[in-house]
Write a structure and sequence with these properties.
Elements: E1 8-12, H1 21-32, E2 36-43, E3 56-61, H2 67-84, E4 89-93, H3 98-107, E5 112-117, H4 131-143, E6 150-152, H5 155-165, E7 170-171, H6 187-190, E8 197-203, H7 212-218, E9 225-231, H8 236-245, E10 252-254, H9 260-269, E11 272-275, H10 282-285, H11 290-298, E12 301-305, H12 308-317, E13 320-323, H13 328-339, H14 342-358, H15 361-377
Helix pairs in contact: 1-15, 2-3, 7-8, 7-13, 9-11, 11-14
Length: 382
């Protein structure tokens, strides 16, 4: 371990480092494996200050905020940083940072690279029907076959990559850390009205086709309950407009992006958590969102869509129900049925507690640690 103290791992992401809990967990495993870690991402105009961490964080100030120019500028700036940095291991998160990391890897002899694909990036609904989809597909086809160490988030996505590229994929799911609740905040402390039962949708990827609009409209048919939307994403402006249009201001409350432990305080107060991704794209069809594992750790009962990876977990541990249709009526029916059956709700809640002992990062991270040790022991591959 002493010989590794000067080994440096640089971890690349395209977000502003505020709420990406998977990446933070990865950085800590790298530290446990003996590396000094630098996490590099972006800084946005509304980015909050980062809390102190046990690794170095660097955020790039970019001219462009989205679209092709953003991704081009991000990768150019990342490459310029990486090519002049002292680095032993590059850890690229998702396809949008892979070009810069891979090019730096090829130019820096003795450097190794691990690629962590958090999703089927080229199948994201935001890319459907756009020229950008073909560009990202070409980038993936060019680089992916040349990688030796690849991670993804579930078995379904791993099977797709293995079939497409004949590469061995390591599955490291984005399960939540086992939480110890030293002090729980009250509704008053979090700005939530008393006297109402709570439903929650949370996370950093509150985007289209995730059932958020339908969940908002469902609250018209759910008496004495409030929907909390905690997080951020592309759909939020439209979601707020929908609330105003349907006069649901008292039934749907937005709390924006929050640090992880604060996010979990909201989650813990909710009786039901919604995970309603639609099968509109391959990316969502095989999704296994980390909010599902957050609900488990917070002992929050789940209502989910019938997507294979999500439904498998919910059924395996008997922690909630799945619905076949993502409509306001079907969502409201499932919520009302659970809220009116305290015995069933408590049964699911108790099973969440049991599932939390199994489905946690402490049990999952061994697979990542094993891969890192393998990378350290083998040749550099470039």
């Amino acid at each position: 371990m002493d010989a590794l103290k000067n080994k440096i791992a640089i971890v690349t992401v395209s977000n502003d480092l505020t709420t990406d809990n998977r990446v933070s967990k990865t950085c800590n495993v790298l530290i446990e494996s003996g590396f000094r870690v630098v996490l590099i991402g972006r800084k946005r105009k509304n980015s909050s200050e980062l809390r102190a961490r046990n690794y170095t964080c660097k955020r790039l100030n970019l001219w462009f905020d989205k679209g092709a120019l953003f991704y081009a500028e991000l990768n150019i700036r990342l490459f310029c940083f990486l090519v002049f940095a002292k680095v032993d291991l590059l850890f690229a998160n998702d396809l949008d940072t892979l070009p810069a990391a891979f090019l730096a890897f090829k130019l820096k002899k003795g450097t190794k690279i691990i690629y962590d694909s958090h999703e089927l990036f080229t199948e994201a609904p935001e890319l459907e029907g756009r020229r950008a989809k073909k560009v990202w597909e070409r980038i993936e086809k060019l680089i992916f076959p040349k990688l030796n160490y690849i991670i993804t988030v579930n078995d379904s996505i791993a099977a797709i990559f293995e079939k497409k590229y004949q590469k061995s994929i390591v599955v490291v799911r984005n399960v939540s850390e086992k939480l110890i609740w030293e002090k729980s905040k009250t509704k008053e402390e979090l700005g939530i009205p008393n006297g109402k039962r709570l439903i929650i949708i949370q996370g950093s990827g509150l985007n289209v086709d995730r059932g958020i609009e339908e969940s908002i409209l469902a609250m018209q048919f759910v008496p004495d309950a409030i929907l909390l939307i905690v997080g951020d994403g592309d759909v939020i402006p439209e979601a707020k407009f929908l609330v105003k249009k349907n006069q649901l201001d008292a039934k749907v409350l937005f709390f924006g992006k929050r640090p992880y432990f604060e996010l979990m305080q909201f989650t813990k107060l909710a009786e039901i958590g919604l995970a309603l991704d639609k099968p509109k794209s391959l990316n969502y069809r095989f999704a296994l969102p980390n909010k599902l594992f957050d609900y488990i750790q917070a002992h929050t009962v789940v209502i989910c869509s019938n997507l294979i990876e999500i439904q498998n977990i919910v059924e395996k541990y008997d922690i909630g129900v799945s619905i076949d249709e993502i409509t306001p009526e079907s969502i409201a029916k499932a919520i009302n049925k659970l809220l009116s059956n305290s015995e069933k709700l408590n049964h699911f809640k108790e099973n969440c507690k049991k599932a939390a002992e199994m489905e946690n990062w402490e049990n999952e991270k061994g697979k990542l640690r094993e891969l890192i040790e393998k990378v350290k022991s083998e040749g550099n591959g470039n």
